[in-house]
Design goal:
The chain contains eleven helices and 57 strands. By secondary structure, it is mainly β. Among the domains are: 4-148, Phosphorylase Kinase, domain 1, CATH 3.30.200; 158-366 and 387-410, Transferase(Phosphotransferase), domain 1 (Orthogonal Bundle); 429-690, Methylamine Dehydrogenase, Chain H (7 Propeller), CATH 2.130.10.30. α3 packs antiparallel against α6 and α4 (259-275) packs across α5 (303-312). The radius of gyration is 34 Å and the shape is globular. The two termini are 24 Å apart.
Length: 1018
């Protein structure tokens, strides 16, 4: 245990004498500034305050000691000297008192910005070369940030002592700085104030500092380049520009800043390290560039290094190296330096309300809240990275400035809004990933989004989203919140259309058919289907977070109470009970007709009301403590602890969740309807073991060498093998089980449909499989109860003849969602409805109600195609015949060689090898862009893309490519293809299986995604 009475306030080492032998601190010589905290003040019950390390216009930095961890720290206190004073009377402790009038308002606004910066601190603390942030808290009517303490000296001081460095020394010292800066840029941030005095060096114990090999660490510090001015206008900012290190765009009103801005400063720093001189100011170089070359300075530097540094110092960004990666390739890999422009302009966060720190400690402003995961985005910085709007400056700076001087310029409140408005939303851990019913989406540091899983409603069409800071998913919907508070949506059209004009949104919530948007002022927008009243949120005020499910909307007010809009039939009493909850942080609603409400309270405990309450869930949840986030679905409830582990939870019907007992270091918790997903601190994604369908895994199928044909259902991929067996893989809901299915043998061909597959046996008979359920719509006027209605439907299914089971001499089959059609060897056709589809099939005759089965008079047929609303037959003369409710104009088609499709989609190949589309939905993905295709022998259609097999064995594809399903350009020797909802499969001549894309519902591929960038665990 540390003896606080013998702890030196100057260096936090043991002090036994009057004068500290380590740092020279003396109590008698130390003069306490009444504006500063007294020595040995204890903050937050665990941080001991030492002497002042530095004071600025906006804050005070102290050395400190963490009493729990027994380690030295740096403490930063928000203290704008022109706006506050400290109560020294002792009556109110060390409370900070804001001055009256406008200064009080400005102080509070500044504190909000300070808090916003603190929320952005911790994201990059794990990057080597960046000092870590440990804690943040309120006390004394102000705010404090706890940081790692660094003992060392700045590169500026080191150069003063040592003089110019060699090329090898310079490259060695700057490599960790460049590596750290590249990661910072990848996150969407720029530093804007790189110089020798913002690079810290630490040395090995007892080392000779003149020996560069004894430098232990090199760290880039102080990202507070934009800081609040001490005036009455909170929008007024000052920008600190280091003379000689800032490029010209930092001086201009419309100067576009980006990664190239930091490249200039880095190269200026290296120029100073090599030559001993600071480069001429950028504004002085605009009209006459007199920057001395290394040769003129008589410095021996390799041509690669010289070219890289000088091109990095180009006055105009158009002529400058644009990225740190290119600079590193030139410096360390010998690649020729040249100007470049990033392919995607990074999402730049320019910092405001920053706090400049001493060389002993610094504050790195990231984008992630590290103290309270429930906190909503705070007041936004007034500047963003598309270019600071500075008032016009002179063409050159005042003379007489040296490399230690800074130039202060006022920030104009106007800004260029050509692309995005001011940034008001930053990534938070809880909104880095989200799950819907059967899909997952995740946010990446470049502001783009990935998606995997079921795309039935277009919920995974997120590849074009940019500048996203938070993602949300529910049911078959996805939403992204851009940095400027505008919204992108995928899934239900009513939601997409409803958010197009939204602005200023800081948080979202998604339901099945509605969406909520929280504004900065605590009011709530809504859009979508309002049949339950769930969109009636116009009167809500003082809201901190929003939540939605089915026909309900929930708002958590800043005092932790709830407001609810919407109704659920028969659940009025339950909703009124839930409204009484207090101190809430998160709401999760599971189920529809019999819902369960789970509530996470701010104290980390969990509440439960509703259907599962009667199953004893509330009693089981009573022991949960310290929970920071909930995830729940059908049959599971999980809680994330602050230490990154999961709370034990009841999993109901699905025992796959037992594996999560081994999950550790989890930062993000979300889930789909049946599967839990977590993201570790290293950015990798974990998903609970999938419930599989069939007799094979996808990996086993892709390793086959005896495949003949492929067929898709909504959820499964089936492969026919040369020995007549079928291999099937897929992911389905946990209550669907195919273990009772007998193995299929002696098959010669297969075809897929929505709910199963069908095959032709060697004996030319038909075999079909699918789910055992009965499709029927309950009729309340029947006088039967729902259970009696269901029982009658199953009885009728048994009476409905399965006509296909008796067919013989079958040479071709095709299936829709409701019926099967077969071509017989004599050119005639048979068709029958499925016994279980009683909404569409007459249980007495087995015939479909839409006339699809009326094909008994067809002759001279060479191919059949079963569609949901009819049956299509291709005659030997290249014309079409139809049954059911198909478009009559199809009968005018001629000169066709083959027809392809299923369900709702149909296309044909003409005899000249080109494509004629009959029906491809609304073609929103461009799946009909096949005009250039020739020499085709087969087509494969899905709801979002079209694939074609050519005579030469190559494959082409167009349409949606969100899972890579159209990436087939390298395929060859293919003899058969099949298109699934999010994949294309090809069978090669030698029996191999090729696949582009993923399986339907395969959000488990997220585990293979590149790692996300997450803030460190607080």
């Amino acid at each position: 245990m540390v003896d606080l009475n013998h702890l030196c306030p100057g260096c936090m080492r043991e002090l036994k004498d009057e004068i500290c032998p380590h740092c020279g601190f003396s109590y008698t010589a130390y003069q306490q500034n009444l504006r500063c905290l007294p020595l040995h003040t204890i903050l937050a019950g665990k941080y001991l305050v030492g002497k002042v390390l530095g004071q600025g216009g906006f804050g005070i930095t102290y050395i400190g000691f963490d009493l729990n961890m027994e380690s030295r720290i740096a403490i930063k206190e928000y203290f704008p000297v022109e706006l506050v004073s400290r109560d020294t009377s002792g009556a109110a402790g060390d409370r900070v008192l804001s001055l009256s009038g406008e200064k009080s308002i400005t102080y509070q606004q500044g504190l909000k910005k300070y808090v916003a910066e603190a929320r952005n601190v911790s994201r990059f603390s794990e990057i080597p070369g960046v000092v870590s942030i440990k804690d943040f808290f309120y006390e004394n009517e102000t705010a404090y940030i706890i940081m790692e303490y660094i003992e060392g000296e700045s590169l500026k001081e080191y150069l003063k002592q040592k003089g110019p460095l060699t090329e090898a020394e310079t490259l060695s010292l700057m490599k960790p700085v460049l590596e750290a800066l590249e990661k910072v840029h990848a996150s969407g941030m720029i530093h804007r104030d790189i110089s020798p005095d913002n690079i810290m060096l630490t040395f090995r114990e007892g080392a000779e500092k003149s020996d560069i090999s004894q430098i232990k660490d090199v760290k880039l510090i102080d990202f507070g380049a934009a800081r609040m001015a001490a005036g009455s206008d909170p929008k007024s900012l000052t920008i600190v520009l280091k003379h000689g290190y800032a490029p010209e765009e930092q001086y201009r009103t419309h100067g576009e800043q980006g990664t190239w801005t930091d490249v200039y400063a880095v190269c200026a720093t290296m120029y100073r390290m090599l030559t001993g001189s600071t480069p001429e100011p950028a504004m002085d170089r605009l009209f006459e560039d007199r920057l001395k070359s290394f040769e003129d300075c008589r410095i021996r530097v390799s041509r690669n290094t010289a070219d890289a540094i000088l091109k990095g110092l180009a006055v105009k960004k158009e002529n400058r190296i644009s990225t740190v990666r290119e600079l590193m390739q030139s410096l360390y890999e010998g690649k020729k330096a040249g100007k470049s422009k990033p392919a995607r302009r990074p999402l730049i966060l320019v910092l405001s309300a920053g706090i400049a720190l001493s060389a002993a400690a610094f504050l790195f402003f990231g984008r992630e809240a590290f103290f309270s995961p429930s906190a909503q985005t705070a007041a936004a910085p007034s500047v963003s990275g598309s270019g600071d709007m500075l008032k016009p400056a002179d063409a050159s700076l005042p003379s007489g400035l040296n490399d230690t001087d800074s130039v202060s310029l006022s920030l104009d409140s106007s800004r260029d809004t050509e692309e995005l408005g001011p940034q008001i939303v930053w990534p938070r851990t809880e909104t880095m990933a989200a799950g819907g019913t059967n899909h997952l989406i995740a946010l990446y540091e470049d502001g783009t989004v990935r998606a995997a899983g079921n795309n039935r409603s277009g919920q995974c069409d997120v590849s074009e989203w940019e500048h996203i800071a938070a993602v949300y998913a529910a049911y078959d919907n996805s939403a992204g919140l851009r940095t400027d508070g505008t919204v992108a949506a995928a899934g239900a059209a009513i939601i997409q259309d409803g958010v197009t004009s939204w602005k200023g949104v800081t948080d979202l919530a998604l339901g099945a058919n509605h969406i909520l948007g929280l504004l900065e002022d605590g009011t709530v927008l809504s859009a979508g289907n309002n049949h339950t009243g769930c969109c009636e949120t116009g009167s809500w005020t003082d809201i901190e977070s929003v939540w939605a499910s089915l026909g309900l909307s929930v708002g958590i007010k800043k005092d932790g109470s709830l407001v609810i809009a919407g109704t659920l039939d028969g659940q009025e009493e339950l909703i009124e009970r839930v409204k009484q909850w207090t101190g809430m942080k998160q709401i999760v609603i599971c189920g529809d007709s019999r819902p369960t409400f789970f509530g996470l309270r701010r104290d980390g405990t969990v509440l439960c009301m509703g259907n599962l309450e009667s199953a004893g869930y509330q009693e089981k949840l009573a022991s949960w403590k310290g929970i920071t986030r909930l995830a729940a679905g059908d049959g599971y409830i999980a809680g994330l602890r602050a230490d990154g582990t999961l709370q034990n939870f009841e999993h109901g019907l699905n025992d796959q969740y037992a594996e999560t007992s081994t999950w550790t270091d989890i930062r993000v918790l979300t889930g789909t309807l049946y599967n839990l997903a977590g993201i570790r601190s290293d950015g990798t994604i974990l998903v609970t073991e999938p419930t599989r369908y069939g007799n094979s895994t996808l990996e086993e199928i892709l390793s086959l060498d005896n495949a003949v044909q492929a067929a898709w259902t909504d959820q499964n991929l089936s492969i026919l093998c040369r020995d007549g067996t079928v291999r099937t893989a897929g992911y389905i809901e946990y209550y669907m089980n195919s273990s009772s299915e007998e193995p299929w043998t002696n098959l010669t061909s297969i075809t897929g449909f929505t709910n199963g597959i069908a095959g032709i046996t060697a004996a030319q008979t038909v075999r079909r499989t699918g789910f055992d359920g009965v499709s029927t719509t309950y009729d309340a006027s029947s006088g039967l109860t729902p259970q009696e209605w269901t029982n009658r439907a199953f009885d009728q299914k048994e009476q409905t003849p399965d006509l296909a089971a008796g067919w013989t001499q079958v040479t071709d089959i095709s299936c829709s969602s409701y019926h099967i059609a077969a071509l017989l060897s004599d050119g005639t056709v048979r068709a029958a409805g499925y016994p279980e589809q009683q909404d569409h099939t007459d249980y007495r005759t087995g015939l479909t109600k839409n006339g699809s089965c009326l094909v008994s008079d067809w002759t001279d047929i060479r191919q059949v195609l079963a569609l949901n609303d009819g049956t299509l037959g291709l005659k030997n003369d290249g014309t079409l015949v139809m049954a059911g409710e198909l478009p009559k104009q199809w009968s005018s088609c001629t000169d066709l060689a083959s027809i392809w499709g299923s369900g709702q989609f149909a296309s044909a190949i003409r005899r000249d090898g080109t494509v004629q589309h009959l029906r491809i939905g609304n073609d929103e993905y461009g799946q009909t862009n096949t005009a250039s295709w020739t020499n085709l022998v087969q087509l494969a259609l899905s709801s979002t893309h079209t694939a074609g097999l050519k005579e030469d064995g190559t494959v082409v594809a167009v349409g949606s490519n969100y899972c890579g399903q159209c990436e087939v350009s390298g395929w060859s020797n293919v003899v058969s293809i099949a298109a699934g909802p999010c994949a294309t499969v090809g069978i090669t001549e030698d029996g191999r299986v090729l696949m582009a894309g993923t399986l339907w519902n395969d959000f488990f591929t997220a585990e293979k995604w590149p790692a996300l960038s997450l803030p460190p665990l607080s």
